[in-house]
Every structure is written in structure tokens, then in C-alpha cells.
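User: hey, got a sec? need Fe2OG dioxygenase domain-containing protein folded
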Amino acid sequence: MPVPTFPPFPDDVPTHPLLVIDYELLRSGDSREKERLWAAATELGFWYLKNHGADEEVDGMFDMGADATAIPMEEKMKFEQGDTGFSFGFKVPGACVVDAAGTLDTVEFLNIAKDDALAYPKPARRSYPNAVNAWMNSTITPFVRKSLEVNDTFLEIFNEKLGLPEGALDKLHTGSGEFSGSEARLIKRPAGMPTDQLGLGAHTDFGSLSFLHNRLGGLQVLPPGVEEWQYVKPLPGHAICNVGDALSIMSGGILRSNIHRVAPPPGDQSSLERWSLVFFQRPGNSVVLRALTDQSPVIDQAVKNSDGRINFNPGQTAEEWFVRRVKHKRTNNYKDPETWRAGRGTEQGRA
Ligand SMILES: O=C(O)CCC(=O)C(=O)O
Ligand SMILES: [Fe+2]
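Assistant: Yep! Here you go:
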């Protein structure tokens, strides 16, 4: 399907520039580009990525999402994620809350486990409707493989910059060979939603790295030391990449997991249906989240110098961390601001 054209992103809203990182340069080992990536990942934790080579897979995923979310609600509910902290499957609008007051969300998710995409046609974590399965070999699995390749490239560079023994971060992710919370997520915000309602509330991402593709505005970041939310402008052909909590903890806070949210698209884009696609890379399920102080003097020093706002030893595995964060977002589990706070990550009081 050709990429549709949209009304332009307005030039009169607060917008935060991101560094543009060239994936091809990273792959060729360009040391200046690696330095620029390091600056982006440690200062804000967000960057654009060009020349990632995943455009075809991304377009296919949006076509798949349109197909899959069009199935009848009754059918969809058979594949709903449920309230136990299991993420894979559909999440319908209103099934999650976006803030401590219990305000309902406005977006639909379709989450597909990396483990299912790679094992297909063998089921690994759960089953999906035919409208998803039909796209597995042609589109979903290739998108997952491509996303893993991109994120594994980042992990290798961060491993080197953090002074970790070779392959240390890989061993906790792809190299662990075990199931993980890694997943591809399609997000649909229906057209004509009230312009004062958030799509997704302020959060940090749960896992290690997020590889995001969107076409309409709406994503906003709260940069360090700034009190006003700022849009990240979608750029054609550019992914938006960011660091999540798990990698921030492992690196002793050197890699930044920055708070962000999804607001209504700005200006003339506000009434349109908004789609985004993310691949979330997360550590293997049994990996205990902790700063890798014993493997890197740089990380050890960072923890010693830290202001104490991030707990670098939360005493949870990646799976426990993930389940806790997903579960406490569910509307059915919301009781009061305390139950909301029980699902928080490294937001550091900024949400
Ligand atoms: O839709 C977007 O632009 C961002 C989505 C996001 O932050 C998330 O799913 O964690
Ligand atoms: Fe996010």
C-alpha cells in the first residue's frame, strides 16, 4: 500500500530536535557516528535513525495492523491480553489507565511476541487470529528479525562504550536464547478522539531498546531540566529509537531512559486516525535487573556518583519487572493512585 499523505506537522508547537544517526555508518564501524549515538543515548536517550533498511517491513506491518484490528470485537476479545500482566495479544481502548487519577487510555494495541514470530508456525507464547497469522511469514517475522538486528547493533556499541567484557549485553538479551518480553506493538488511536485526551500516559519504556515508527505527531518527551512537554516530529523514513528502563539500570544510569507520552496529534492532524509501530527489545525473562558494577569500572563509578533517584537493584527479574508494569496499567486492576504507582519504573517522580 502506498504511504498516505497527511496534513503537515505544524511549525508552531514546542518540538524537541533529536540527533539523526545513520545506521549504515554504524554498521561500517564509523567511530564518529558511534560517538554521536553515545551522546544521544546518554544525554536524552532518544534519537532518529536513518538508513535502517526496514521501510518495506514497516509498511507491511501497518497494512497487517489495519487488517488485524478490523476483526469483530467478539473475535478480538478471545485474544485480549487480560489482567494478569501478560502483554501479548490485543488491548482495546479504555483497558488501561494513563495516570494516577485512573483516566482511561484511548488507544488500541496489538502486541506480538518476538518468540511467537521466530517460532512460527509453532506456538511459543500464545495464539493469534488468522488475520495476524496470515502475515507472519511475509511480514511480521521479517520485521522482528530486522528490528533485532538494529537493536543488537546498538547493544554491541553500548557494550564497548560501557567498558563491558565482549558480548556481556548480548548474553542478557538475544544471546541468552531464552524467552523474553520482547514484542512488536501496533498502536491505533481512533479518528475523532477528544483533543484533550492522552493516547498513552507519561512513562518510561520497560525494556532495553525501542525501535519506533510513526507518521503523525503525538509523541512527546520531557527532556531533563525542562518542564514543558515537547513533540518529536516524525520524519519520513526515519525511525525514532530510545533507551528503556532495563538498559538504563544495567548501565548504572549512564544510558538514559527518558520519560515520554503520546498526546493527540498536533494542529490539522488532530482529528485523524494515528498509527504507530514499535519493536521493544527486552532482556531474557530470568535476567535479574541490576547495574553491572562488577563487570565495568565505568558503571561502578556511575552508581557511586548517582543521586539515588534510580534504584539500581530493584530485586526483580526482567519478567517480574515487565509483568508488574503491565499489570498495574490495566483498568481492572486500578483502585487508587497507589495501585498506579506500583506499576512505575524509573520515571523518577516526573509523571
Ligand atoms: O506511539 C508513539 O509514538 C509512542 C509509543 C510509546 O511510547 C510506547 O508504546 O511505549
Ligand atoms: Fe514508550
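Quick note: The longest strand covers residues 274-281. Let me know if you need anything else on Fe2OG dioxygenase domain-containing protein.
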